[in-house]
Every structure is written in C-alpha cells, then in structure tokens.
Design a protein that fits this description.
The chain has about 190 residues and is an alpha/beta fold. It has 6 helices and 8 strands; from the N terminus they run αβαβαβαβαβββαβ. The strands form 2 sheets. It has a 6-stranded parallel β-sheet with strand order 1-2-3-4-5-8, covered by helices on one side. β1, α2 (about 35-40) and β2 (about 45-50) form a beta-alpha-beta unit.
Length: about 190
C-alpha cells in the first residue's frame, strides 16, 4: 500500500521532478493495468516502458507492438529481457530470434527505443544484441543499469567481480549515436 502512484507523484513533487519514465517490472509479466492506469491519471507526468513478449509469433510481432502502443500514447520505450526468451526456440538465437528481430525493427521504425535488461551482464548477450543492432541499425538502444558490468549484480557479496567483457562491449558502443546507457541501480556497482 506504500507504493501508490499518488505517493510517487508526491515524491516527484518534493524533489522538483516534473515527469518520469516508469518501467514495467518483468515480474508483472504483461499485465499493464497498473502502469496504464498511472499514465492515464498523470498523462503529462508519467511515461512508460513495456516488456517485449517473446511468445508472440514473428509474423504477429509488429502488430503486437502496435496494439501495445494503442493502449497508451504515453509509452516511450520497449524493454527486452533475455530471460523471458525460451531457450532453443527458433534455432536457439535468444532475443535475436525471428520474433525479437521483428519487434526490434518495428520499434526502430516507430522511433521507440529498446532497452536491454541484461542482469547477468552484457557479455552474456552481446552476440544477440549485436545481431539485433545489425538487423536494424537505426533502432535506438538503451543499456539498462550501466550494462551490469559488476557481477553478480546483487549489489553485495564478497565474490563480486568486474566483468571485463561486458564493460568492453559497452565501451565499444560509444561511437554509435543510437546507443544510450541508463545510469541507474547504482547500488549494484
């Protein structure tokens, strides 16, 4: 009951924040009712990011993306979570399977950035991400939580290490004008 939309708006007001982007947590799946209600109640203050659904057939992916966007004009991004992709489907290409490519391309055509939630580090998914970016180079990309270059990404524990491969992949994207890094969840660093 503490995490209400009204409380969030009050916190924004108290911090002099005029608007915010709210990302649908993966654990809520594709039930966007709370996010949609919040954006409808505060249409000039709250904007949303929804989660790609890898269960959608490739041929239906562009239409699925369009149907999500028709639910709210306040959607401003799409999140790819690699752990939602079933292993082995479509030749084991993960996010770069036919559904992922279709959604990624369509998002780019619509000007919708795609954020990657790579909890185990960018290096675990760099091949998939590179394939997506090659398939649609004009799609804007956001690497969530600074690319999770410290592993494990729990934010604590004696066995945390700097993931050189994730950091290198992130730094290699620096010259790409369509790549952005979301500086967030700094407790994980």
């Amino acid at each position: 009951a503490n995490a209400t939309v009204r409380r969030f708006i009050n916190l924004m007001d108290g911090s002099d924040v005029s608007w915010s982007i709210v990302v649908q947590p993966t654990n809520y799946g594709h039930d966007y009712s709370y996010l949609l209600a919040a954006m409808a109640e505060y249409p000039t203050r709250l904007f949303g990011v929804f989660v790609a659904n890898p269960a959608v057939l490739p041929i239906e992916a562009p239409a699925w993306l369009g149907s999500q966007l028709r639910n709210s004009s306040n959607y401003v991004g799409l999140r790819f979570n690699p752990f939602m992709w079933p292993e082995g489907r479509f030749r084991g290409k993960g996010m770069a399977d036919e559904t992922g490519v279709a959604m990624f391309k369509r998002a780019g055509e619509l000007g919708l950035p795609v954020a990657f939630m790579t909890f185990t580090g960018l290096s675990s998914f760099s091949t998939e991400i590179a394939e997506l970016m090659e398939a649609s180079p004009n799609t804007k990309v956001i690497f969530d939580h600074v690319g999770f270059f410290i592993q494990p990404a729990t934010g604590k524990g004696p066995n945390r290490v700097f993931d050189d491969a994730s950091w290198e992949f992130l730094m290699n994207q620096a010259s790409n004008p369509n790549v952005f890094v979301k500086v967030s969840a700094l407790f994980r660093i």
